Amino acid sequence: MTIGFIGFGNMGKVLSESLRKFSDTQTEIIISDKDYSKIEEAKKAGFKTDNNKEVFLKSDIVFLCIKPKDLISSLEEIKQMIKEADEKSKNIIKKKTIVSILAGIRISKIIDALGIEIPIIRIMPNTPTLVGEGAFGIYFSENVEETPKNFVMNFLNKVGKTVVVENEDLMDTITGLSGSGPAYIFMVIQALADGGVRMGLSRKDALILSAQTVLGSAKMVLENIGKLHPEELKDMVMSPGGTTAEGIKALEENRIRFAFIKAVEEATKKSKELSK
Ligand SMILES: NC(=O)c1ccc[n+]([C@@H]2O[C@H](COP(=O)([O-])OP(=O)(O)OC[C@H]3O[C@@H](n4cnc5c(N)ncnc54)[C@H](OP(=O)(O)O)[C@@H]3O)[C@@H](O)[C@H]2O)c1
């Protein structure tokens, strides 16, 4: 199977490198990007490269890893080629699958930009994919075949956790939660470490302790889904009249839960705006 990537920026790079790491030798990867320095970078990393049109034509599955604002321009040449293709070529093209990682861009918009109805998988990845701990929201258009579906699911489950949704609107919520989420959590880690530094720890020690605390806590939540609620895990730490109770009071005074709920809400709204 040949897998193409249009766009070799932050996410294109993360996904193509992860795919290479986890796929068998029969999987060929081919990359295109508008930016010549990115093409050079891809070549240096050992990838085959070509232009957008050739990547599309040569691939069975094409990952679209450009910014939402570049959707039309990145598919322009491909749209023109499809317009001029005969019926036989159009039927071959219809067997390809596009995997879009674009925030806020609905399937109908991609179909419009291509000028042909082909199967599309929307995924919302996040940057921890780089360390094999991605979180992926996934939505399949109705016409996606089992082979590309299984390929994408197998790949993503190797580099993180997947959640498939039946309603495309929920992709905006996933963008606001796990797509943008690493940025929120990096702030949390940094803020916890700042607290540690303020109370006398070295920066390095404070960062190790805060990051490991987030990692370990996340692992406990994931291992206890359907068994222990996060509130119960919190109660295991918070003893009566103890230190944690004082910390929790300070967090509640500063409306920490409201701040995170609002962050997801605002990011979701922005993703919905992008789709207009
Ligand atoms: N970054 C994240 O954490 C994250 C998380 C989830 C989803 N996403 C989604 O991932 C997508 C890509 O984000 P990113 O951070 O990887 O962006 P990025 O670093 O800007 O990468 C996009 C790449 O595509 C290139 N490009 C632009 N127009 C093109 C065209 N017509 N043909 C071929 N290549 C073109 C860009 O080149 P130029 O730089 O020259 O424009 C750039 O190298 C976005 O749609 C975003 O919504 C990102």
Layout of secondary structure:
Elements: E1 2-6, H1 10-22, E2 28-32, H2 36-44, E3 48-49, H3 52-58, E4 61-64, H4 71-84, H5 87-93, E5 97-100, H6 107-114, E6 120-124, E7 134-140, H7 146-158, E8 160-164, H8 170-179, H9 181-198, H10 203-223, H11 230-237, H12 243-253, H13 256-274
Helix pairs in contact: 8-13, 9-10
Bound molecules: NADP nicotinamide-adenine-dinucleotide phosphate.
What can you see in these coordinates?
The chain contains 13 helices and eight strands. Helix 8 crosses helix 13 (256-274) and helix 9 (181-198) crosses helix 10. The protein has 276 residues and is α/β, with parallel strands linked by helices. Helix content is 57%, strand content 13%. It folds into two domains: 2-168, Rossmann fold, CATH 3.40.50.720; 181-274, ProC C-terminal domain-like fold, CATH 1.10.3730. NADP nicotinamide-adenine-dinucleotide phosphate binds next to helix 1 and helix 4.
Concise account of the structure shown:
The chain is of the alpha/beta class. 57% of the residues lie in helices and 13% in strands.
Terminal Cα separation, in Å?
34 Å
Ligands, deduplicated: NADP nicotinamide-adenine-dinucleotide phosphate
Percent in helix: 55-70%
Shape: elongated
**CATH topology category name of the largest domain:** Rossmann fold
**Would you identify the CATH H-level superfamily of the largest domain?**
NAD(P)-binding Rossmann-like Domain
What is the structural class?
alpha/beta
Strand order of the largest sheet: 3-2-1-4-5-6-7-8
Q: According to CATH, what is the class of the largest domain?
A: Alpha Beta
- Total strand count, please? 8
Average pLDDT level: 95
